[in-house]
Write a structure and sequence with these properties.
A hairpin with a 7-residue loop joins strand 15 and strand 16. The strands form four sheets. The protein has a five-stranded parallel beta sheet, sandwiched between helices. A five-stranded parallel beta sheet has the order 10-9-11-8-12, with helices on both faces. Helix content is 40%, strand content 17%. It is an alpha/beta fold and 477 residues long. Helix 7 crosses helix 8. It folds into four domains: 103 residues, Rossmann fold (3-Layer(aba) Sandwich), CATH 3.40.50.720; 64 residues; 114 residues, Cobalt-precorrin-4 Transmethylase, domain 1; 124 residues, 2-Layer Sandwich (Methyltransferase, Cobalt-precorrin-4 Transmethylase, Domain 2), CATH 3.30.950. Bound molecules: S-adenosyl-L-homocysteine (SAH).
Length: 477
């Protein structure tokens, strides 16, 4: 290691920036966002003022623009010197900074620099600095992207949350190792999870409910349940949060609909338990699922309830969090891409379209019986796209209902089976053909989309092309 990472206190004094142009502007943006005060030596004042205009209010209050000579001006109180786009003046400025005992960086000029700027991941109080000793900024940037993805978005909030309460708790825990243990418990347990899930008030309440912090430090770990939407099947459609939850889990309760590629993303050592139903075969039942989730949490486990698509769209996620709340178990919900949205994207069905489709209805019609219970008269609006979940076995009833309600028989429809998976299959046609189309996709799970927008989809365009080609063929024969 040639460069020692240190963090400069931006409140201690201004930074000196010498130079102009794109490089200087890029530096200014970073420094402004960090809240730095900057004494900026620009050589062309008018150009500098023009550059500052789009930087907004912050630029006016944080930048002290000067046309003084940086080689002779007073640098009293400055904490570091940066040269960006300073051209030939760089080495002289560096020389002066060294004499003044100030750290100096001349961009792209290691020989005249005494420090270099790292790539930064900025999460408030949590900052990660990545350096490559000046060898490859591109490597640093790539690493930053990975760290960005791996760090919870609210990690800075967690650090501040603890920072604000640390002193008060230290007065209550005498022993130093016990203090560390206490905070580890807080961070890894439900309280930390609540802060990361954006529920600081609940976290605060849970923290205040700790009567004896020393006992809490050594007590059994309290568990946490995360309801995670797994999306429609393609593992790359998992959210970063979902992936993190899978990587942190002690046990995962998953539905039948969750694809094997997604199960592959679960932490290797985690226990896995299927709890879903298959078509025709009952699962273990919703009450039993609730019982298992509560039991896992009470055993101190980090449990994940992994559901196809989104937990709150025909996923019974609502019932599950009600059961968890009633049992006093801490939980968070991570949304997923629901099958209808996934299928629409994969087959290029724009669910809304200017002037053509102004509303979307998500509907379930599990069995013919359920489909008969649907109020079809609410679905007659021609400018409404209807997305049907679990509609395969009821396709004929759905057709009947919509036709009776007055949707034209020529309304474009599509059946999108196993959407976003490698064995996806979609067929398109018109409303009067719906049951035949449903029979052509070799089984579910499948989404039915009904509405004019289906005529914009990729399978629709393909079908039209096929038709034209076959006309040619007939003509040729
Ligand atoms: N919570 C889930 C829906 C569960 S209901 C979600 O938000 O997607 C189960 C229904 O979802 C299936 O009957 C089918 O209609 C639909 N479905 C789930 N995965 C699908 C996929 N990959 N392709 C098409 N439809 C799918």
């Amino acid at each position: 290691m040639r460069f020692l990472p240190v963090f400069l206190d931006l409140r201690a004094g201004p930074l000196v920036l010498v130079g102009q142009g794109e490089l200087a502007l890029a530096k200014l943006r970073v420094l402004l966002a960090a809240g730095a005060r900057i004494r900026w030596y620009a050589f062309d004042r008018d150009a500098a003022l023009r550059d500052m205009a789009p930087l907004g209010e912050a630029a006016l209050s944080q930048i002290d623009l000067t046309d003084a000579d940086p080689l002779h001006d007073d640098w009293q109180g400055a904490i570091a010197v940066l040269c960006a786009g300073a051209g030939e003046r760089g080495p002289a400025v560096a020389e002066r900074a060294r004499h003044a005992g100030l750290p100096v960086n001349v961009m792209d000029d290691l020989a005249h620099s005494t420090f270099i700027s790292p790539a930064i991941v900025d999460r408030g109080d949590v900052v990660v600095a990545i350096g490559t000793s000046g060898t490859s900024p591109v490597v640093a940037r790539r690493l930053r992207e990975r760290i960005e993805a791996a760090l919870p978005g609210r990690i800075g909030e967690l650090a501040s949350f603890i920072g604000q309460r640390r002193k008060a708790f230290h007065a209550r825990i005498g022993d130093f190792p016990l203090r560390r243990r206490f905070w580890e418990r807080v961070i890894d347990g439900p309280i930390g999870n609540l802060v990361l899930a954006g529920k600081p008030r609940e976290a605060e309440a849970a923290l205040n409910a700790i009567d004896d912090p020393s006992a809490y430090a050594v007590a059994d770990r309290k568990g946490f349940v995360t309801l995670v939407g797994a999306g429609p099947g393609d593992p790359d459609l998992l959210t970063i949060k979902a992936l993190r939850a899978l990587q942190d889990a002690d046990i995962v309760f998953y539905d039948e609909l969750v694809s094997p590629e997604i199960l592959d993303r679960i932490r290797r050592d985690a226990a896995r338990m299927p709890v879903g139903r298959r078509v025709g075969k009952p699962g273990i039942g919703q009450d039993e699922i609730h019982r298992l989730l509560i039991e896992a949490a009470n055993d101190g486990k980090r449990a994940v309830r992994l559901k196809g698509g989104d937990p709150f769209i025909f996923g019974r996620g609502g019932e599950e969090i009600e059961a968890l709340r009633a049992a006093g178990v801490a939980y968070a919900v991570v949304p997923g891409i629901t099958a209808g949205i996934g299928a629409a994207a994969a087959s290029e069905v724009p669910l809304t379209f200017r002037h053509e489709a102004l509303r979307i209805t998500l509907l379930t019609a599990h069995k013919a019986k359920d489909a008969e219970a649907v109020d079809w008269s609410a679905l007659t609006d021609q400018k409404m796209t209807v997305v049907v979940y679990m509609g395969m076995t009821a396709a004929a009833t759905i057709r009947g209902g919509l036709l009776a309600a007055g949707r034209p028989a020529t309304t474009p429809v599509g059946v999108f089976a196993r959407a976003t998976r490698t064995d996806a299959k979609s067929v398109v046609g018109t409303l009067d053909q719906l049951p035949e189309l449903a029979a052509q996709v070799d089984g579910g799970p499948a989404i039915l989309i009904i509405g004019d927008v289906v005529a914009h989809s990729a399978p629709w365009r393909d079908a039209q092309l096929q038709q034209i080609l076959s006309t040619f063929q007939i003509a040729a024969e």
